[in-house]
Amino acid sequence: MMMQKHLQQIRLKGTMAVLLAVGSVSAFPAWALATPVEAATVQLTIGNASAETNSAFTIPVTATPTNGEIASYNMQIDFDPKAFQIHAITSKYGSSDLTTCSENTEGCFQASFDNENGWIRVIWIDPSTGSTDPHPIKGKQVLFDISGTTKASTGNKTFAIDTKSTENFSFTDGHFIDKEPQQLKPEAQIIENSFNVSDPPSNSGTGTAPTIDVKVYIDGKLQEKSATAITTTINGRVTTSITVDNDKVIQQLEHNTVKTLMLPFRDNTSQVVVGELNGKLVKAMEGKDASVQIQTDRATYTLPAAQIRIDNISHEIGSNVSLEDIKIRVKIADGSAKQSDELKLLAQTEQFNNVTSPVDFEVEATFGDKQVQVHQFNNYVERSLALPDGVDPTKMTTGIVLHNDGTVTHVPTRIHKEDNKYYADIKSLTNSTYSVIWNPKTFTDVTSHWSRTDVSDLASRLIVQGTSKDAFSPDRAITRAEFTTILLRALGLYSPKEAQAVSFSDVTSSDWFEPQVTTAVSYKLVSGYEDGTFQPNGLITRAEAMKMLEQALALVQLDVIKDAQAINALLAAFTDQDEIQPWARQAIAASVSQGIAEGADNKLSPNANITRAQTAAMVRRLLIKAHLIND
């Protein structure tokens, strides 16, 4: 890897060496300390904030390249340790997993901090810089969040940066001059944070930030005095942090069969709501197969404790750390102004209507200066977005996920009504930022076709596309790459489950379908042929399609028929069942038993090429059967 190659050529000094010594980063390219060029500049913004003493805060740090692109950055942020206690530096762009980040399009991120001496060190690089497919930061981007608590020291505080030291503050440009990367020259005046820390109101009588009791429900039963909340204004955003009385709830778990721990906080003035539990409570809930549910006016997040995978977090943080000392934060937040603006612009371009504003969902674990993002789940996790009052229920199409590059894609969504209000239930295998759109689509050549409902529904959900603006070509055969792409879109899968190297001889990094094939392989939805090929442009048979659908059944937790006698009895109803090859019999039986494949004229036609219309029908039936979309 380029990142590793650069590291073999240099030795870092000063505070960079300190960062390496504490194990926060194992690699950083020499060109990160390149000579600055006058032409390229970058502006750094550390958001303004105000908070009372002994209260939680989160501050975003944003960079904007004003002339050039950011291929790496390195900075030290200094603070008064008497004023702040830092808890976490949360990457908003870049992966912290050094074993896989070189394959991540957002690059590699590492951070460390020292609360005794008052400094934060952060490094990010795009390892693909200089390759044929680099991924530099090209526009305004939130780099990371600084989270912590204020101390008793009041007054105007700052998070300062020594901009004159390239060792403490440097950015490199994504463009090369004479095959050498160039360092961005920071603007003369960086927009630094102005943080006002004040005493709480005198009538609080405690000398600490005022807290309020929050209602806690266990399986619908109110638990008195089991959680408190602190509300502060951070960077212009009203933030409420709810802290659960972990020991009190654990006692309830020990003596009762508990399924849901619900924290409702219906205060429409809070733009960010964070529920905080410790690892010990999460482990106890996991043993009860219980979920934590955070409710706000705009959204509800229902997270099974098992999906947090507290044992993995404990292993990553350190097995010597007690579970009760690990904090788990479940956050629901309004999307950023940038995300809202990008969504509005995209809606105009793509001609769909926004139904809701973006809402962001995050889960993180922290202990001291160690932080673990819980981003991926083993099973689908549900979030419900409240739809505006008075909205027409027929004008709600699907939930979408907002990606960092400004694009949006489908996520499985059902609409339900409760107490005369509509909600969009979005299910996903990852955390991200979501919204709901209305996007009616139809094609002239399916108006009278048997597949009209299936095609129009999936097209409206951004799952299938036409062969032209007005045509779908329903009876045209489909390729293996196209079928794979449609299945992934339907399931809401857009990135690999884990680092996955695709070794098919006919799939290269320059192919449009390579990301889809890589993702499908990581979720075990597809496999290649014995000769090492994937044959992406080859037509896919109905049997091959149902083999992939069988793999998807396991992902959406639908039963797969495995008993040989039952399989033979089911397939005996079709006159061409002898044409089914042994490898496909279980898969086809699974699709038939779940109502995904129906056949025609008592035939399954396993060796016939599947058409675009048949693909839409089968994929939509899968989503309906799995309760991922409405019928």
Automatic annotation (TrEMBL):
Domain SLH: 438-499, 500-563, 571-631
Domain of life: Bacteria
CDD domains linked to this entry: Type_I_cohesin_like
Full protein name: SLH domain-containing protein
UniProt keyword Signal present: yes
Signal listed as a keyword: yes
Gene3D superfamilies registered for this protein in UniProt: 2.60.40.680
Annotated keywords: Signal
Signal peptide, first to last residue: 1-27
